[in-house]
Amino acid sequence: PYWYAMPSGTPTYLTVLESQETGTPGALIRNAIIFRVTEASGIPLLDTNPTVTVMSGEGEVREVLAIDDIVPGAYAVHVVLGPRVGDNEFRIRAGELQQDVIIAGQRP
Questions:
Q1: Spatial CB neighbours of 46, under 8 Å, sequence gap ≥ 6
Q2: With pLDDT > 70 as the criterion, what percentage of the chain qualifies?
Q3: End-to-end CA distance of the chain, in Å?
Q4: Which residues contact 6 (CB under 8 A, 6 or more apart)?
Q5: What whole-number distance in Å separates Cα of residue 22 and Cα of residue 102?
Q6: Confidence of residue 3 (pLDDT cuts 50, 70, 90)
Q7: Conformation bin of residue 12: beta by default, left when phi > 0, alpha when psi is -120 to 50
Q8: Model's pTM, two decimal places?
Q9: Structure confidence at residue 10 (pLDDT)
Q10: Bridge partners (DSSP) listed for residue 77
Q11: 9-61: per-residue pLDDT in tens?
C-alpha cells in the first residue's frame, strides 16, 4: 500500500484561502484574493493557468501571480476596486472550476 502522489493534472478544488472584504473605491489592493488550485488527492497544481475576471463593480484585475514559494499551488490577485461605493465581484476560473469573490467598496 504505497501512495506515489502522481497528480492527475485536472483541477478538482479551487479554494479561496483569503480575501479582502472591503476597500476604498478606486484603490489598488495587493493580495486582495489568495486562492489555491488542487487535484482530487489534494496535490497542488503548479501548472494551472487560472484567470480572474471582473463580473460587476467596474473594478480591474491588475495581476494574478503564483506564490508557490509561500503556499504551494496558491495564487495572489491584485485588484483595483471600481470608482463607486458598492460591491465588486471577481470570478476565478481554473479549468472547469469557478468561484466568485465579492469585495465591497466603502468610503473610509
A1: 66, 68, 72, 73
A2: 94
A3: 57
A4: none
A5: 9
A6: low
A7: alpha
A8: 0.90
A9: 84
A10: 33, 64
A11: 788 999 999 999 999 999 999 999 999 999 888 888 878 899 999 999 999 99
Rounded to whole angstroms, how far apart are CA atoms 65 and 49?
Answer: 10
- Cell reading at 64: 494574478
9, 45 contact by CB (below 8 A): yes
37: β partners? 14
Which residue, among 31, 75, 79, 22, has the nearest Cα to 55 in the 3D structure?
79
Nearest to 90 by CA among 12, 10, 35: 35
- Do 52 and 92 form a contact (C-beta atoms < 8 A)? yes
Distance CA 22, CA 39 (A): 30
Which distant-in-sequence residues (6+ apart) come within 8 Å of 96 by Cβ? 11
Helix, strand or coil, per DSSP, at residue 62: strand
